[in-house]
Amino acid sequence: MIINFSNFKLRNELLKVIKEINYIRPTPIQIKCIPLLLNKYDVLGIAKTGSGKTASYVLPILNSITINSLQCLVLVPTRELAIQIKDNFLLFSKYLKFKILSLYGGQKYNIQLSKLKNNPNIIISTPGRLIDYIKRRNLINFNNIKFLVLDEVDEMFCKGFIDDVKFILSNINVKHQTALFSATICNNIKNIIKKFMLFPKEINLLLNKKKFDNIPKNIKQYYCLFYSYNDKINFLINFLEVEKFKAVIIFVKTKSYTLKLSNLLQKKGYNCSSLNGDMNQNLREKNINDLRNGNINILVATDIAARGLDINNVNLVINYDLPIDFKYYIHRIGRTGRANNIGKTILFINKRDIKIVYLLQKKLNIKINKIYPPNKNILLKIRIKKIMNFIEYYINKKNNNDFFYKNILTNILKKYNFINNEKINLILLNFIYDNLFLNKKI
Ligand code: AMP
After folding, report:
1. How remote is the CA of residue 295 from the centroid of ligand 1, in Å?
2. How many CB atoms neighbour CB 140 within 10 A?
3. Among 21, 152, 310, which is best to mutate for testing ligand 1, by the most ligand atoms less than 8 A from CB?
4. pLDDT, tens digit, 9 for 90 and up, residues 88-110
5. If you measure from the C-alpha of residue 338 to the centroid of ligand 1, how many angstroms do you get, rounded to a whole number?
6. CA nearest to 59, candidates 31, 24, 82
7. What is the percentage of the chain residues whose pLDDT exceeds 70?
8. Ligand 1 binding pocket, CB closer than 6 Å
9. I want to staple 37 with a disulfide (CB 3.0 to 4.6 A). Which of 60, 148, 295, 358 is the partner?
10. Residue 425 backbone dihedrals phi, psi, to 5 degrees
11. Handedness of CA 435, 437, 439, 442 (dihedral sign)
12. How many beta carbons lie within 10 A of that of residue 59, not counting itself?
């Protein structure tokens, strides 16, 4: 039987938005979770990255709450996720009058305080900032909470948040529904979590014929062997040259390396920024928005970007440094291939660590194919094409009075017949590429 959103008997105001944003059918996790949450069950929802988990709780919550008081609390592990989920609530409540607030560290207290005094109906928060408000200011009244959601719940319980979460939960003494979501969850955490729920319904869409099936099929996974530090950086630069990406996230291990690598790529002419937990909040938000809006197309990030971020144009994820465990591998690569879009991932791996690829494949029941860094011929072709396009663009540019360069470029074009002549002088080509094109000296 084909299920449509209209089968859920949601408010017209919600169905109207669903139509406007062109969600044709609910995704499998939505088909399972929306009716359960509407029927007042507690739910533990486990499904692949990018499979529509957010709407599977946002819709039933917006369908069930009223505008009278604070009725929903959503806890998330990162600030970026708090903002993104708030945006989801805002999107779906376009025709409803709910007050929605996100709280997170790094944002000024006075801004958040004035919004808190405005009696929000829904709060999306990271644990730390919420505890601040509970302990110091006693400003939040949980007496009417109907829904508690923990998104990326395993992260919330693993990453030292467990006491914070327990403290928050101990402040919510009214009967409410609890919904917990993640793409990864182990049995240990599952047992702890279930203590916070009442007869929960577990929806696990990862179990496929008794084998784990965690990763969307539309993500093509590769690994690339490198032998030295120089290899690694050169391979990365070469991949960036040939891969057709709209936006790419490059994951590295340390905060300082996000800056170092992004500076290096900027110097090579790429529109690139970094993201790490030491950066101030405004910059973090700006860099994420820049990637979302296409102002930049490369983000070099620590694992702070690994969980939950939904940026549709990310069609390439590069694991430049190894993830700390297989869960992080799943979440990192899940930043691409969202909502059934095609995605590609490349894991850089030292020859000594090749067994990690075999382990990942075995543990996650996936195939990671070997990929070789682009060879000289491919690079040459790509460079010729790029330079040709650039030179033509430059020559044809209106109001371009820079006759000096214009003449040089026109002569180069004529003399070397870039398109047809494969024997082109490689040194000259690379010189032009490095000095004129990448460094944007013209
Ligand atoms: P999520 O897993 O909640 O982060 O969602 C991943 C992506 O899927 C987001 O970009 C959503 O806008 C999109 N999405 C969620 N539900 C649907 C649906 N029913 N139809 C089409 N796209 C959807």
Report:
1. 23
2. 18
3. 310
4. 999 999 999 999 999 999 888 88
5. 7
6. 31
7. 86
8. 23, 26-27, 30, 50-55, 310, 312, 338-339
9. 60
10. -70, 110
11. positive
12. 27
The CA-atom distances, in angstroms, between 20 and each of 60, 155, 357 are 18, 33, 43
Residue 106's pLDDT is: 87
Q: What is the C-alpha separation between 198 and 176, in angstroms, rounded?
A: 10
What is 312-326 written as a DSSP string?
A: TTEEEEEESS--SSH
Q: Which residues does residue 72 pair with via DSSP β-bridges, in sequence order? A: 122, 147
Please state the rounded mean pLDDT for residues 326-351: 95
Q: Ligand 1, residue 88: give the atom nearest the CA.
A: 12
Closest Cα to residue 250, out of 227, 230, 276?
276
Residue listed under structure tokens 């327990």: 166
Ligand 1 centroid to Cα of residue 346, in Å, is 24
Half-sphere exposure of 347 (CA within 13 A, CB side): 29
In a mutational test of the pocket of ligand 1, which residue from 330, 335, 336, 338 has the highest number of ligand atoms less than 8 Å from its CB? 338
Q: Which residue has the tokens 């499998």?
A: 28
- Name the residue among 67, 128, 76 with its Cα closest to residue 99: 67
The rounded distance, in Å, linking the Cα atoms of 15 and 55 is 12
Contacts for 298 with CB less than 8 Å, ≥ 6 apart: 240, 247, 248, 250, 262, 265, 270, 271, 272, 273
Ligand 1: centre distance to CA 307 (Å): 15
d(CA 111, CA 98): 19
Q: Is the pLDDT of residue 420 over 50?
A: no
